[in-house]
Amino acid sequence: MHIHNKQRYNFAMSAFVRMYGHSIANNIDIKQFCKEWSTRTDNAPLQGLDEVDQYLYYEYKNWRGR
């Protein structure tokens, strides 16, 4: 994984850990979503952690519903 993608993966994963706790890091769907999101070009809002968490929560919901 490219270093930039790895940073984006860790950024996304940290949001899910904040929302659901450390056990979510073992969820295969969350891992796959973070991996796919890390390769996209859109950026998460950076105003605050709440906005980041909400953004990734809804992105994951949309991804799961595809």
Provide key terms for this protein:
66 residues, mainly alpha
**Helical content, roughly?**
55-70%
Order of helices and strands: HHH
| Backbone CA Rg | 11 Å
- How far do the termini sit from each other? 25 Å
Oligomeric state: single chain
Write the SSE topology.
Elements: H1 3-20, H2 28-38, H3 49-64
Helix pairs in contact: 1-2, 1-3
What does this structure look like?
The chain is mostly helical and 66 residues long. It contains 3 helices and no strands. Helix 1 (3-20) crosses helix 2 (28-38) and helix 1 (3-20) crosses helix 3. It is globular and about 25 Å long.
How would you briefly describe this protein structure?
The chain is mainly α and 66 residues long. It is built from three helices and no strands.
